Amino acid sequence: MLTLKYYPYDLKFSEVFAVSSNARTSTEVIYVELGYEGKIGYGEASFPPYMKERRDDNLVYLSQLNLSGFTSPFQMDEIYAYMDSLSSENTPAKASVDMALYDLMGKVSGLPVNKLLGLESKKTIYTSFTIGIGEDDFILRQLNKAKQFKTIKVKLAGDILYNKHAIEFIQNNSAQAIGVDFNGGLPNKEIALNMIQWLAAKNILYIEQPLPVSLEKDYIFLKAESPLDIFGDESMQNVKDMIYKHELFDGVNIKLMKCGGISKAYQMASIAPSLGLKTMLGCMAEGSCAVTAAANLASMFDKVDLDGHLMMANDKFEGVEIVNGELKLCQLKLTGIEKQ
Amino acid sequence: MLTLKYYPYDLKFSEVFAVSSNARTSTEVIYVELGYEGKIGYGEASFPPYMKERRDDNLVYLSQLNLSGFTSPFQMDEIYAYMDSLSSENTPAKASVDMALYDLMGKVSGLPVNKLLGLESKKTIYTSFTIGIGEDDFILRQLNKAKQFKTIKVKLAGDILYNKHAIEFIQNNSAQAIGVDFNGGLPNKEIALNMIQWLAAKNILYIEQPLPVSLEKDYIFLKAESPLDIFGDESMQNVKDMIYKHELFDGVNIKLMKCGGISKAYQMASIAPSLGLKTMLGCMAEGSCAVTAAANLASMFDKVDLDGHLMMANDKFEGVEIVNGELKLCQLKLTGIEKQ
């Protein structure tokens, strides 16, 4: 028998987090607890502003889930098909149940989730650290937090002067490698190409989603002309996007919350190379629960950007650890303590 | 430590097996044994004439595999990447190692392979039974063997008179539902459409690969005009074929030996619905070892056609059982006995 509980929770950022479209002091999540044979599997749904999903709708969706027809978490595939049969949306809620099922499968079998997936690895995996948009003193504080990381992902926007200043300011204060994420903030393909060429001259590693989803057709031009690899994020939410839009990008940023969980992210990462796409494993602004779930897949990816939990002031879970920028897989634990 | 052994074996058919391109009395396979912590995982590579893979080349490839850098079968993903790095071909050999790794992961964890994959299912799964090309008395003997099966897959070819006779003869002697597999045997799209229309009037369920790979572009016409679903087989060997040719077919026949094993077939079956493709799980003429490996995935598929092992006179393994046409997953066992 599988039992499902869930509750909303507000994760607070240690500092205001700003990207091209918005600035926030907290982010809404839902925590899911799946019970089976005295064990509990945990999952988390997060709701970044750029996805259309709303927490209230996902809570309603979870209230409609009736898992009493299933007898074990190992019925993952059929449970997912049941979830899809109720709604084609509510992807974060589905992702949270998927995570909780994998957490349970791991606990029941005694296998860490990465082993369960055939992803045991001795590789050293580094994650990047994200720096949001802000004033110089904010960036300096972030760079201080970022010291242990080999790569920084810098959020930029439509303000070209800000962008150039931020990159030069960071490079004057740090020798770390830099990737850039525009979250669709640039206004058109000509400005985007100019900006990318400027960034290439600054030895930036890669570019993420420079143009908004509404200008997707212009990625053909941009990909052909850009000296840097362009990863799709907002444009590449799930396996369908990846298949039908793979010619627009050099790489895909895969996130559990967009695609629907561990099972779907595994599928996307498995087939991306066949589509000629490089892969980045990303996360939303979310807690250790969701980030730890994603970390199980890290060895499959070309780049890993799993730092969402590091921004949180009141994370209720402990899981993946980051030591000298290196991702260390650990068993997920609910501490219940709102860490400051 | 993983240790790899392998040896060639010739599986003998109980009766001559004929399809549109050839007739055979035996089929070549390789058996693989992967040792780890005192347990052995088994795998099988088979070599149907329509694939370009040859057993000798695959034996050479296996002789080049050095798994000493890997410490556990749960490093599946990295072991597969290593196999791909040595050769882009030798798919049956890779499939056999993939199967053996899953068999080992199952034995080490105590989880049946379908559970390990989140595919535990209470569904009743029926497999079809294949009848090759032959004279009336051959067909009658095959129909006798096919009594317990709900669906028969009938092999047809370019000889329209034979095709019509075979279907009418079978329908006069059986009330079972029928699918038809041409193995690319029809000469052009007009003849194919006529044949399919005739078959539709006979209430045939589906059509498999009516035109050869060399006439692939004509599947656009055929799919648009055909009253029956058309599954690709020879044209749809792996995930790349499936992605780039999905508009040519209504469905895809996925076989471990074509795509490279359980992991790859799982990936293909996972994404096929996103491409608008129905799914069939098929097999080659091969033994219980390979068929049992495939059977772990059966619950993911719309149709299941796992009967290759039923044709064999000297199968050395026991595994999946078929009871009243229903597929029963069982632990794979090497009996060593050449069953008659």
Fold topology:
The structure is a homodimer of 340-residue chains.
Chain A lengths: L2 E16 L4 E14 L2 E8 L8 H10 L11 H11 L4 H19 L3 H4 L12 E3 L4 H10 L5 E5 L4 H14 L3 E5 L7 H13 L4 E3 L10 H7 L3 E4 L6 H6 L6 E5 H4 L2 H10 L6 E5 L5 H8 L7 E2 L12 E2 L2 E3 L2 E3 L4 E2 L6
Parallel strand pairs in A: 4-5, 5-6, 6-7, 7-8, 8-9, 9-10, 10-11
Antiparallel strand pairs in A: 1-2, 2-3, 12-15, 13-14
Helix pairs in contact in A: 2-3, 5-6
**Overall shape of chain A:** globular
Q: What's the architecture of the largest domain in chain A in CATH terms?
A: Alpha-Beta Barrel
**What is the number of strand segments of chain A?**
15
Q: Any idea how many domains of chain A?
A: 2
Please outline the major beta sheet of chain A.
8 strands, parallel
CATH superfamily of the largest domain in chain A: Enolase-like C-terminal domain
Pair of chains with the largest interface and how many residues each contributes: A-B, 32 and 32 residues
Please give the alpha-carbon distance between the first and last residues of chain A: 36 Å
CATH class of the largest domain in chain A: Alpha Beta
Helix content of chain A: 25-40%
User: How much beta of chain A, percentage-wise?
Assistant: 15-25%
The Cα radius of gyration of chain A reads 19 Å
| CATH topology grouping of the largest domain in chain A | TIM Barrel
Order of helices and strands of chain A: EEEHHHHEHEHEHEHEHEHHEHEEEEE
Low-confidence stretches of chain A: none
Give the strand line-up of the largest sheet of chain A: 4-5-6-7-8-9-10-11
In round numbers, the mean pLDDT of chain A is 95
SSE class of chain A: alpha/beta
